[in-house]
Amino acid sequence: MIKTHIITGGLGVGKTTCIQALLAQKPAEESWAVLVNEFGQVGIDGALLAKQAQGVAIKEIPGGCLCCVAGVPFQVGLGQLIRKARPDRILIEPSGLGHPKQLLQSLQGKWFRDLLVLGAHLTLVDPRRLRDDRWRDAQIWQDQISIADVLIANHWDQCSLQDQQAWQQWVQTLAPEPRLYQLSFGQVPVAALDQPKLQRPLQLSAHPLHPAGLLSKPEISPFADRPETELGLPEGTPWQRFDNQGQGMQASGWLIQPSLQLPHSELLAWASGLAVQRMKAVLYTSQGWYAFNYVDGSLTLSEVEALDFARLEMIDAQLPTEEVQQWQQLLLQAKAG
User: Fold this and answer.
1) Strand (E) positions, the chain?
2) Domain boundaries, the chain
3) What is the rounded distance in angstroms from the CA atom of residue 213 to the CA atom of residue 251?
4) CA distances, 268 to each of 141, 185, 230 (Å)
């Protein structure tokens, strides 16, 4: 039986950073695997994990939330991961727009119930969002909280005293109360994965694309040998745009040849003033390779190793035309480095 954990939370809350911290603590004698789902199409989180977590099997399912758009692809992707990697432990990172209760239904379904044992599920929360009704009242967010065996207040170092007090008051209303961590930079201890599970029934909430709360199921076994497609660019194409939408949100992503060098200062100026809910990127700039992470009006940068392709993705309810055009103008300024 493979220990399996869901690592969930809203857009930009730090799920990938949390998984990186857990992988860094992996016991040498264990084999782990990670299944990543992103709402967009260009696979930024999976690419970063694959580069930084050597020796860990990474499988990515782009283009949707796990409970609906990517229901069958999820089951097929998980089957391929189990068949090829035969891991001791699996970490599953749904999109911040994914409904984890429907994901749990799939993990407990006929294809996986004799292979997987569900361990502690981790839900990350940014306490700064607790006073925002858009987050607190959202069904996805409530579902993410309801499956938490471990609840993590991430970005604790960036929270005001008022934010921290709001967190402490809110967690007292939860029943049963999950194990609590207050962290900075997603540095969750690996012991969190082995916290005891909370006993509660699985109650599926309705979903606009699946009113009955049921996943579509593959007609044949998800463990069947299927060809795997790889993300790439046609020869001679400098970059390509990929669009996706669902659940009232839009995503646009760009896959870019790794030799194209973007102007660092102009890129930084553009990224610092965005009016989108979420932007993330790994880009080759005139100062080297950098990861850009923009959420809730805050931008952070970090140096990273080169990837097979540069990538950028923006997510919002309505992507602003002007900012998309400004980004594409920056692409046109890129030079072969």
Assistant:
1) 2-9, 32-38, 57-62, 89-93, 116-118, 122-125, 150-153, 179-182, 239-246, 249-256, 260-261, 278-285, 288-295, 298-303, 310-316, 335-336
2) 2-194, 239-336
3) 24
4) 31, 22, 30
Each residue's pLDDT tens digit, 70-126: 467 888 889 999 999 999 999 999 888 777 877 888 888 888 999 999 999 999 999
C-alpha torsion 107→46→19→30, nearest 10: 70
**Could you tell me the two tokens for 256?**
């870019």
The strand pairing partners of 116, in sequence order, are: 2
CATH superfamily of 239-336: CobW-like, C-terminal domain (3.30.1220.10)
Using CA atoms of 337, 253, 328, 273 in order, give the dihedral in degrees to the nearest 10. Answer: -100
Token look-up 């992470």 returns: 293
Taking residue 280's Cβ as centre, other Cβ atoms within 10 Å add up to 24
Smallest Cα–Cα separation from 200: which of 230, 174, 163? 174
Say what angle helices 139-146 and 100-107 make with each other, to 10 degrees.
50
Among 310, 318, 319, 315, CA closest to 294: 315
**What does pTM read for this prediction?**
0.90
| 2-194 to CATH, choices 3.40.50.300, 3.50.50.60, 3.30.360.10, 3.90.1150.10 | 3.40.50.300
